[in-house]
Amino acid sequence: MALTLMLSVNGVTRLSAADTAVPPQVISINESIEQNWTDYQITPAPEADDATWCRRVHLDVIGRIPTLEEMEEFMSDRSSDKRAKLVDKLLHDDRYTEEYAGHWATVWANLLIGRSGGNDRRDLTSRDGMMKYLRDTFASNKPYNKMVFDLVTAEGASEPGKPGFNGAVNFLIGKVNEEKGVLAASSTSRIFLGQQVQCTQCHNHPFNDWKQQKFWEFNSFFRQTRALRRFGPGGGRDIDFAELVSEDFAGEAGDPENALVYYEMRNGLVRTAYPVFTDGTAIGPSGFVSDVNRRQELGRLMMESTDLDKMAVNRFWSMFMGYGFTKPIDDMGPHNPSSHPELLEKLASDFRASSYNVKDLITWITLSRPYGLAAVLGGGNKVDDPSIGETPKFSRFYLRQMSAEQLYQSLVASTDATSAGTYEQQEEQRRKWLQQFVVAFGTDEGDEATTFDGSIPQALMLFNGELTGRATSIEKGSFIDRLSQTGKSPRDRLNSLFMAGLARRPTKGEMSMASKLMVARKNNEKEMLQDLWWAILNSNEFIMQH
C-alpha cells in the first residue's frame, strides 16, 4: 500500500500520494444516487471510457477540450486513481490556474450580468471590471460565501484603473436605479438564495410561500443604494465610469428615521414594508446609513442562511450534471421539492463545513459515479429522461451542447488557433467572435443552455470563419502540420486526429472516407487530414459535451 501524505496548501488539506482516499462526500453521492436507482428499478449506463471522461472533465473544469498531448498523457497513465489525479491537476496545478479562473469568471459573469452585460457603451456595467473581480476570485479560490458577500455589499468604481475600483459593484450597478431596485432584489434572491420572487412584485404567488409583502420587504434592503454616473474630464457628456454608493434613504413618506416603502396590492390598497429577510429577521427601520447599512445587513443575513448553501450546491451540480436537483435550478421553495432532498442537504452542509471551498465541491461531483457514466439511454434506464419532464435520476450522463465560450476556447486551445497581438487584442477578438455567435444563435440572455440550431449564420460562421481557418491551417507549426509528423502510419495519425476532437478512434466508415480523401488529394496526407479535421470541428458530435 502506498504511503499517503497530507499537505496543507493555503489552509486546504490535500492528499499528495497516488493512492488517495475517496472523499466521503463522493461516497455519499454514490450511495444516495444508487439507492434512487434501486427504488426505480433502474440499471444505470456503463462507465464512460477514459478518453470520453477526460474530454468531459476538461470542458467542465477549465472550459475547453484537452489538447492531444493532454489526452495522450492521461491515457498513458496506468494508475488506478488517474481520474482523481487529473481533477486535482486541473484544479490545483499552477499551469491551469489562468484557464480555470477565466472559465469560471466567464460562467459567472454571464450569470450575474448576462452575455450582453457591459457591452453597450451606455451601460453602467463594466464587463472588464466584472471579469477582473471574478478572475481574481477564482484564481485565489476565494470562498464562495465571501464572493457572494462582496457582490451584495460592494461599493466603489466599476472600471479597472479608476479611483476606488471595486469590480464586484458590477453585479448591482446596472440594477439598482431602475424601478426602485426591483431587478437588484429579484436577481439577488434568485441567483444566491434560490427564491424566485419577481412575480410577487405585483401580486401574491398562488403556489409558493412568497407573498407581495415579502418581496417588498426584501426589496427594502436595496433602497439606500444608488449608481452614479461619473463623466470624463473636460465637462463632456461621455460617461467615464459608474460608481455604486450607499446613501441615506428618506423613505417614501419622507421620514428617514422610519424609512418605509409603499406598495399597492391588486385590490388597490396601499401597504408599507421595511427591510425583513426571507426567514423573518427584521433590521432597524432607519434609512440613515450611519444607523444601519441595509446591504451590509443583508449580506450578513445571507451568510447565515442555509438557503445560500443549498442554492450553491444545486447550481454547481447542474453545471456538471446537466440538471439540478430542482427545475428550474433557482426555484427551491417548498412548492418545488428536490429530486434528492437528503443528498442536497448533506452536500450543502458539507460545503459550509469546507468553508465554501468551490474546488472541494467540484472534486466531489467530478469523482462521483453518476458523473462518470456514459451518455447511454437504454432499456434499463429509459425512465430517466428529464427532457420529457421526468425527474432526473442521474443514471447516465446527459448530453448537452457546449457553450459558445467553450467552443471558442476548444478551437483555440486544442489547435493553437490563437490570434496575434497582445492579451487585450486577443480578448477583444474573442469578444467580437462571441458576440457574433450569440447574436446568431439568440442566446444573449445568459440562460442555462446555448442553442445550436443549424441556422445559416451558424453554418457560415463555423464553416468559413477566421477562427476555423486558423484551426484547420496546414502551415508550418500548425496543429495539422505537427500531427503529420507524428505516429508510425497514416492510421496512427487518423487515430490521433479523432482522439483530439472527439475522444474516440475513427469508425470503419470514417477510415474508408479518409482513404477516398487521400486519393482525391493525390496522396497529400496533410490536405486529407485538413479536410477531416474541418469536418470534425463542424460536426454535431464535436460541439456536444458527452
What would you say this structure looks like, in words?
By secondary structure, the chain is mainly alpha-helical. Helices cover 46% and strands 7% of the residues. The strands form four sheets. It has a three-stranded antiparallel β-sheet with strand order 3-5-4, with no helix packed on it. It has a two-stranded antiparallel ribbon with strand order 1-2. Helix 20 packs across helix 21.
Task: Describe the structure concisely.
This protein is mostly helical.
Helix-strand blueprint:
Blueprint lengths: L5 E4 L2 E4 L8 H16 L10 H13 L5 H9 L5 H11 L4 H17 L13 H13 L4 H10 L2 E2 L24 H12 L18 H8 L5 E7 L7 E8 L14 E4 L5 E4 L20 H11 L1 H16 L19 H13 L4 H9 L33 E2 L2 H12 L7 H19 L14 H9 L1 H6 L7 H5 L6 H13 L5 H13 L4 H13 L2 H4 E2 L1
Antiparallel strand pairs: 1-2, 3-5, 4-5, 6-7, 8-9
Kindly state the number of beta strands: 9
Low-pLDDT windows of residues = 1-19, 199-204, 439-452
Structural class: mainly alpha
Shape: globular
Task: Give the oligomeric state of the chains in this entry, treating copies of one chain as homo and distinct chains as hetero.
Answer: single chain
Q: Number of DSSP helices?
A: 22
The N- and C-terminal alpha carbons lie at a distance of 35 Å
Largest sheet: 3 strands, antiparallel
With strands numbered from the N-terminus, the spatial order across the biggest sheet is 3-5-4
Q: Output mean pLDDT.
A: 88
What helical percentage do the residues reach?
Answer: 40-55%
How big is the Rg?
26 Å
Beta fraction: 5-15%
Features:
546 residues; 3-stranded antiparallel sheet; two-stranded antiparallel ribbon; 22 helices; 9 strands; disordered N terminus
